[in-house]
Amino acid sequence: MAKEYIRRGYECYIFRADKNISRISEEIPDGMEGIKYISIPSLKTVGVHGRFDPAVLDRYEIDIFQIEGDNQLFLPGLIRHLKKAGPPFFYYLGVLHSNSKSRPARLIMNILIKRNIKLYRQGKCFVKTGALREECLRAGIRDVTLAPVGLDLSVIPKDPGSVYGSRKVLSEKYGLDPYAKWLLFVGRMEEYKRPLDAVKVIKALKGWQLIMIGTGSLNEAVDREADKIRNDRKILHIHKIENKNMFIWYSAADCFLNLNPDEIFGMSMMEANIRGCRVVAVTAPGPLEIIKEGLNGFIAESPEEAAGLIDRELDRERIREYAVRNFTWARAVDEFEEYIKNSFPDIKKLF
Which residues have C-beta within 8 Å of that of residue 154, sequence separation ≥ 6? Predict the structure, then answer.
C-alpha cells in the first residue's frame, strides 16, 4: 500500500511499537525511497497490542495519519494525543472485535473494544471488506467506505511459464503426476483452516492429487489421514515454502481450496487467481469479497459441496485478467486519495 502511495507522489512514514528496543530506530527499505519504517519502544505490551509515547509522532511533522486501529487496546490514548496535537487522521480497519480462541479473553477484549467503536463513530473509516462495512453500520459507525485489500504486483514473478512447464518442474522434484489434476491447499495446519476436511475432500474426487502447504499443530493428524489413502491417491504435504516460490504452485495447480469458514481476507486466493488458478471456498467474508461466481471460482456452503465444485473448469486467462484488474492496492489507495484530496488538498506525507 505504501508503494502505491509513493508512486503517486506521497511520502510514507510507517510507525510501529516494538517491545524489543529501547530507543527509536528508523529504516528505509532497500529500493523504496519515500517509505520510512520507524520503530518506537513499547511502553506496555499485551499480546499484539502495544502502547508507545504518541508525543514521538510530533517530531515528524506528518500531514495526515492513516490509523490501522482495528481492535487495538491502546488506540484511545493515541487518538487523544492526535486530537490535541492537531493533525487530521482517518481509520483503515480490518476487524472490529476480538477473534481470540479463549472465550473469557474474547469477552473481556470485546468489552474494552467498545471504546474504539465509539471513536470510529466520530471519524472517517475505511474498511477492508464489505462484511466489515455492514458490521460497522450495525455498530452505529456511519462514515464507512470500502477500500479492499490488494496485492503488491511488483513482488510477483512476471513470467509464470506454461501450466505444464510448472508441473513438470514440480513433479520431477516432488514425485507428483504432471498429468493429474492438482488441488492446492495453503495455510496453517490448525483447526480453523480445516486441513482435515481437505483430506476428506480429496477422498471424494477422482483423478486429483492434493498438495498441502503449511505447518502447525495438526501436522501429525493430517499426515495420518493422508497415509490411509496414499495407495490410491497421492497427497503431498510440504511444511514450508518461501512466499516468492509459491507462485509456481499457483501456476501449476488446477484449483485452490479454502475451507476456513472465518476467512477474513484470503490473500492466497488472490495470489492463486493472479496465476489463473480457480478457487473453491466455503462461505466466509474473504471469499465472498474475492470470488465472482463462475468467473474466478465458486462458493460452497460446506466441504462436501466444495468437493462437488472442484471439477468445474474456468478459463485461466479470464481469471488472470480479472485478478490483475481487481486485486491490487491501487483500488484502496484510489479511495484514500479521493478523501485526502477533497478534504486536505495540500497533503503529501502520510502515516
Answer: 3
* 31: number of Cβ within 10 Å: 8
Residue 98 β-bridge partners: none
The count of C-alpha atoms lying within 13 angstroms of the C-alpha of 154, restricted to the half-sphere facing its C-beta, is: 9
Are 260 and 193 spatial neighbours (Cβ–Cβ below 8 Å)? yes
- Find the radius of gyration of the CA atoms of the chain: 22
Distance CA 168, CA 181 (A): 13
CA angle 304, 277, 230 (to 5 degrees): 55
Q: Are 185 and 212 in contact (CB under 8 A)?
A: yes
In the block, residue with C-alpha cell 511499537 = 17
Can you read off the three cell numbers belonging to residue 128?
477492508
pLDDT of the residue at 74: 93
| Model pLDDT, residue 337 | 94
Contacts of 351 (CB under 8 A, 6+ apart): 12, 13, 14, 15, 57, 62, 64, 65, 66, 67, 89
Q: Are 203 and 230 in contact (CB under 8 A)?
A: no
**Neighbour count for residue 94 (Cβ, 10 Å):** 15
Please give the grid coordinates belonging to residue 298. 465458486
**Of 95, 91, 96, the residue nearest 144 (C-alpha):** 91
Beta bridge partners of 151: 328
Q: Which three three-digit cell numbers place residue 161?
A: 511459464
Residues 109-150 pLDDT 10s: 788 889 999 999 999 999 999 989 999 999 999 999 999 999
HEC sequence for 221-273: HHHHHHHHCCCCCCEEEECCCCHHHCHHHHHHCCEEEECCCCCCCCHHHHHHH
